[in-house]
C-alpha cells in the first residue's frame, strides 16, 4: 500500500485520485476555466507556469482564493510555434536553456540535452520563489512536458521541492510499467532508485499517472469515465488541460478543441455524480503536503534532503 495513503487513513483497496488542471496561466483562457472548475468541485489541484505572461493573473486569483490547491508547473520548454516564453532567471545562452530564437527550446529532448544543470537549478528555484513571493500557498511542484525527468535534471527538481517543503510529482511505477510507457532505458534504474529513496524519506509518490488525451476532443465525458473507471487501488494523478474557448487559445494551440472539451466535461454535474457513485476518492496536493510536513517528517526530510539530495541520488 502507498505509505501516504495509509498515513491519511485510506484503506488498501481505496482508489484515490488527484484530478489536476495543468498549464494554469499558460494563456488567459486557462484562468476562468480553472477558476470555474475549482468552484464546480471535481478538479482538486492545478499548477501554474510562472514564466508565462498571464502568471500575474493566476497569482491574483490565488491571493483572492487562498484555499485553492495550486502548485508550480516547473517549465523548461515552450512548445508553441507563435507564442513563446523563456527563463526568468537568466538570458545567458551559456545556460543551455535558450534556443536560437531566444526562448525555451520547443522539445523536451533539446531542453534535456543542452540545459546546464546548475543553470536549470537556478531557474527552478526562481520559478518557485516568484510563486511564493506572489502570495501563492504552493502545494507541490510538477513538470511541464516531463522535462525534468532525466538523470542530469531530476536532482535539481527534487532539491527545489525539498527547499520549498512541498512534494514533487514523482511516479512510483514498476519497471514493467515504465517499459510499457517506453521510458528510456537509462532512466529506468535511476527512476526506481530515486523513488525508493524518496519514499524512504516520507515523500509521497504517485502510483499511476494518466489523463485526458489532447489528440481528440469528441465524447469527452465518456472518455473521462472510461479512463477514471480504470483506476486501480492506490494514488493516481489524473491530468487535464482545461481552457475556455477564446481567439487567443485558438491562435496558440492546435489542440484547443480538446482543452475546451476538458473544461466542459469536468464542469459537468454528470461527471461529478459519476465519480461519486463509482467510489473514487478525490483529494488534492495540500493534504499530501501537510502530511509530509508533520514534525517527524520535516526533521527527517530536512536531514536527508535539501541541498544534499544530489549526493543521495
What would your notes on this structure say?
By secondary structure, the protein is an alpha/beta fold. It has a single domain, classed as Glycoside hydrolase/deacetylase (TIM Barrel). Helix content is 45%, strand content 11%. It has 15 helices and 7 strands. It has helices at 3-7, 30-40, 55-64, 108-114, 117-133, 154-164, 175-180, 185-200, 220-229, 247-252, 256-267, 269-277, 285-292, 295-304, 309-312; strands at residues 15-24, 45-48, 70-74, 141-143, 208-211, 234-240, 281-282. Strands 1, 2, 3, 4, 5, 6 and 7 form a 7-stranded parallel sheet that branches. 44% of the residues are buried. Mean pLDDT is 92; it is low at 308-313.
Quick rundown:
With 313 residues, the protein is of the alpha/beta class.
Could you name the key traits of this structure?
alpha/beta; TIM Barrel; 7-stranded parallel β-sheet; 7 strands; disordered C terminus
Furnish the topology, listing elements before pairings.
Elements: H1 3-7, E1 15-24, H2 30-40, E2 45-48, H3 55-64, E3 70-74, H4 108-114, H5 117-133, E4 141-143, H6 154-164, H7 175-180, H8 185-200, E5 208-211, H9 220-229, E6 234-240, H10 247-252, H11 256-267, H12 269-277, E7 281-282, H13 285-292, H14 295-304, H15 309-312
Parallel strand pairs: 1-2, 1-6, 1-7, 2-3, 3-4, 5-6
Helix pairs in contact: 5-6, 9-12
* CATH domain class: Alpha Beta
Annotation field: number of helices? 15
Mean pLDDT: 92
Give the CA-CA distance, first to last residue: 24 Å
Going by CATH, the architecture would be Alpha-Beta Barrel
Any idea how many domains?
Answer: 1
Give me the count of strands: 7
Shape call: globular
Largest sheet: 7 strands, parallel
CATH topology: TIM Barrel
Low-confidence stretches: 308-313
* Helix and strand element order: HEHEHEHHEHHHEHEHHHEHHH
Percent range for β-strand residues: 5-15%
Structural category: alpha/beta
The radius of gyration is 18 Å
What is the oligomeric state here?
Answer: single chain
Fourth CATH level, the homologous superfamily: Glycoside hydrolase/deacetylase
Q: Give helix % range.
A: 40-55%
